[in-house]
């Protein structure tokens, strides 16, 4: 066997290392709906206002070898239809998030959360480079638009490389996990948090039972 | 009873979102948001602008209750009810309860092309009225065209001119009761009426018919009397979000009362306004020019021009600094015997302001205002203000 072929097979073996999956359902709380998306005075909205994105929770695991990567890829959270594209975004530590504006009017994303305090200023449609913020502390970051009071979103910063979000009903699937025992965390907002322990086996799907692990205060 | 209450989910105590009520299917929703603003004013007396107190310092708390309701996607209602010590701080020192805004809005399409609005609401004239809320305005005081007493008395249309101060007489305008005189545009102009407005990506347009002239005192806004309506329109153009230009015009009878020998229809306030805004990232620069003319029976047409330019710069998240400068000029009136006299002093105003948004729902603001009124040695010049706004 030639040496390059040997390394190729080794790499393929590494790629195909057996992994497992964890699934579950987060009991999403009855979330307050967003404020009525009609501005009191004229001049700040010239297009159609979309319905707010559905509520979601963030899910991630912690354990040996799960720490956030040193240089996670940059991702975007767009503003379109005078709403954030997602109600909740989970990002690993050190992630830089772009905030592109796809509306004809200004948006001004800002956060005064302790986890990350930033103000992107007024950015117009398709302006490049889009404003960014780098999240280097784990925790929950509440986003708002200074101009459009109804626009709200959450960024959940986690020290993990294995994470996902639930769907609007609270269901999630997190796959590609190395076998082992981990803690699965889920979080909806500052108060609604859950965690439970799971053991991942290669090639198997494990159900995370949050029902016996009530919300962490 | 339980069946009636079941579909309603009250989500309370979420700071800055107030209380949101409505059935789960979203066909109907009510948002209730209380807020508190408290400002301490201090400086010269008599207080400049439209402030109505005579003390060295004045505490002006304001409790507001904003109610928004939506039925379906096109019909909305908004009201703002306030308790404070006067619409202009000090004008009701013992406190008063008012409904400043209450209007029904119907949006004809899914976007903002055409809306109809009926009720009591801020004037469509200019651009400042749309950003005069505590959390939107970088200053504590309204700009010069919206908050400077001028020498026309809408409550005395038979002899409307200020003849004190520069025009002769012994009592300058700054010492007279402010509720008897006019401002070119008084505050946000919460008159009663109806109108239509809309926006597209590049254009804004608005037309309204209201019960009171732009210069009218807040007391006149409450009267449901459309025998002498004021018509106001604005057209705006935005090449993109960075720039915004607007042209406003208004015409309406300025006296608020009838008087012997005076036909209110003959006494009209005509106003023309130009507004301009440039914004990018941490900067917002805006300004307005307002020309106004009061037709009188015996003193000719009284004309005044005002401009202001203001800039706001964010120095860090939630912290900003602002500055504003403005000027008011006026023509001369025709006095008895045909002699000309000054009915309104020239005024300069320079302002500095700052704000710190401690939390999304808590804002601290402070400001200093210097107002110089020509030929009026007793007019107050220095004004300091510090205030906090809290949305619950």
Structure description:
The complex is a heterodimer of chains A (217) and B (392). With 217 residues, chain A is mostly beta strands. Chain A has a single domain (44-207), classed as Cupredoxins -  blue copper proteins (Immunoglobulin-like), CATH 2.60.40.420. Chain A has one helix spanning 3-15; strands at 20-25, 58-62, 75-76, 79-80, 83-84, 88-92, 95-98, 109-112, 117-119, 132-135, 139-145, 152-158, 163-165, 171-177, 180-187, 193-200, 205-207. The model of chain A is unreliable at 8-14 (pLDDT under 50). Chain B has a single domain (2-391), classed as Beta Barrel (Porin). In chain B, a hairpin with a 2-residue loop joins strand 16 and strand 17.
Topology:
The complex is a heterodimer of chains A (217) and B (392).
Chain A: H1 3-15, E1 20-25, E2 58-62, E3 75-76, E4 79-80, E5 83-84, E6 88-92, E7 95-98, E8 109-112, E9 117-119, E10 132-135, E11 139-145, E12 152-158, E13 163-165, E14 171-177, E15 180-187, E16 193-200, E17 205-207
Parallel strand pairs in A: 1-17, 3-7, 6-12
Antiparallel strand pairs in A: 1-14, 2-13, 2-15, 4-5, 7-10, 8-9, 8-11, 11-12, 15-16
Chain B: H1 2-5, E1 11-14, E2 18-21, E3 28-43, E4 57-71, E5 75-84, E6 96-107, E7 115-120, E8 149-150, E9 182-183, E10 192-199, E11 203-210, H2 218-221, E12 230-240, E13 243-253, E14 268-280, E15 283-295, E16 301-316, E17 319-330, E18 332-334, E19 340-342, E20 347-359, E21 362-373, E22 382-391
Antiparallel strand pairs in B: 1-2, 2-3, 3-4, 3-22, 4-5, 5-6, 6-7, 7-10, 8-9, 10-11, 11-12, 12-13, 13-14, 14-15, 15-16, 16-17, 17-20, 18-19, 20-21, 21-22
Task: Describe the structure using short key phrases.
heterodimer, A: mainly beta, Immunoglobulin-like, 5-stranded mixed β-sheet, 4-stranded antiparallel β-sheet, B: mainly beta, Porin, two-stranded antiparallel sheet, 2 helices, 22 strands, disordered N terminus
């Amino acid at each position: 066997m030639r040496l390059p072929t040997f390394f190729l097979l080794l790499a393929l073996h590494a790629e195909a290392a057996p992994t497992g999956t964890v699934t579950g359902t987060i009991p999403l709380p009855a979330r307050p709906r967003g404020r009525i998306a009609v501005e009191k005075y004229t001049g700040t909205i010239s297009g159609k206002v979309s319905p707010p994105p559905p509520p979601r929770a963030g899910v991630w695991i912690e354990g040996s070898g799960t720490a956030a990567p040193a240089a996670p890829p940059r991702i975007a959270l767009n503003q379109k239809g005078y709403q954030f594209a997602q109600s909740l975004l989970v990002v690993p530590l050190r992630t830089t998030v772009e905030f592109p504006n796809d509306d004809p009017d200004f948006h001004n994303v800002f956060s005064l959360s302790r986890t990350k305090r930033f103000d992107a200023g007024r950015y117009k449609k398709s302006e490049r480079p889009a404003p960014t913020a780098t999240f280097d502390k784990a925790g929950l970051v509440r986003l708002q638009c200074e101009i459009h009071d109804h626009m709200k979103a959450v960024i959940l910063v986690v020290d993990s490389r294995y994470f996902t979000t639930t769907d609007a009903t609270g269901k999630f699937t997190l796959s590609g996990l190395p076998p082992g025992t981990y803690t699965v965390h889920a979080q909806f907002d500052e108060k609604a948090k859950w965690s439970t322990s799971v053991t991942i086996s290669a090639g198997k799907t494990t159900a995370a039972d949050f029902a016996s692990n009530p919300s962490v205060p | 009873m339980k069946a009636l209450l079941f579909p309603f989910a009250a989500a309370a105590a979420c700071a800055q979102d107030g209380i949101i009520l409505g059935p789960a299917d979203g066909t109907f929703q009510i948002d209730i948001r209380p807020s508190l603003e408290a400002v301490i004013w201090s400086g010269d007396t008599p207080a400049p602008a439209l402030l109505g107190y005579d003390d060295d310092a004045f505490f002006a708390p304001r409790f507001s209750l904003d109610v928004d309701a939506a039925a379906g996607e096109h019909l909305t209602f908004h009201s703002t009810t306030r308790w404070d010590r006067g619409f202009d701080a000090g004008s009701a020192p013992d406190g008063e309860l008012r409904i400043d805004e209450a209007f029904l809005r119907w949006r004809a399409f899914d976007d903002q092309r055409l809306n109809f609005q009926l009720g009591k609401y801020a004037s469509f004239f200019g651009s400042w009225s749309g950003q005069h809320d505590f959390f939107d305005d970088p200053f504590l005081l309204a700009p010069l065209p919206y908050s400077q007493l001028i020498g026309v008395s809408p409550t005395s249309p038979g002899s409307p001119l200020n003849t004190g101060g520069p025009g002769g007489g012994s009592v300058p305008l700054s010492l007279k009761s402010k509720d008897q005189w006019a401002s070119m545009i008084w505050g946000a102009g919460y008159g009663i009426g109806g109108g239509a407005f809309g926006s597209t990506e590049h254009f804004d347009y608005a037309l309204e018919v209201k019960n009171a002239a732009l210069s009218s005192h807040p007391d006149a806004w409450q009267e449901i009397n459309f025998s002498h309506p004021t018509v106001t329109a604005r057209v705006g153009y935005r090449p993109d979000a960075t720039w915004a230009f607007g042209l406003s015009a208004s015409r309406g009878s300025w006296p608020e009362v009838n008087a012997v020998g005076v036909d209110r229809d003959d006494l009209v306030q005509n106003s023309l306004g130009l507004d301009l805004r440039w914004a990018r990232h941490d900067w917002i620069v805006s300004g307005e020019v307002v020309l106004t003319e009061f037709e009188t029976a015996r003193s000719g047409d009284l004309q005044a021009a005002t401009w202001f330019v203001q800039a706001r710069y964010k120095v860090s998240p939630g912290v900003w600094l602002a500055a504003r400068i403005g000027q008011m000029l006026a023509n001369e009136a025709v006095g008895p015997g045909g002699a000309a006299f000054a009915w309104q002093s020239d005024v300069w105003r320079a302002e500095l302001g700052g704000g710190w948004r401690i939390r999304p729902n808590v804002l601290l603001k402070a400001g200093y205002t210097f107002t110089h009124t020509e030929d009026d040695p007793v007019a107050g010049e220095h004004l300091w203000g510090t205030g906090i706004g809290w949305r619950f």
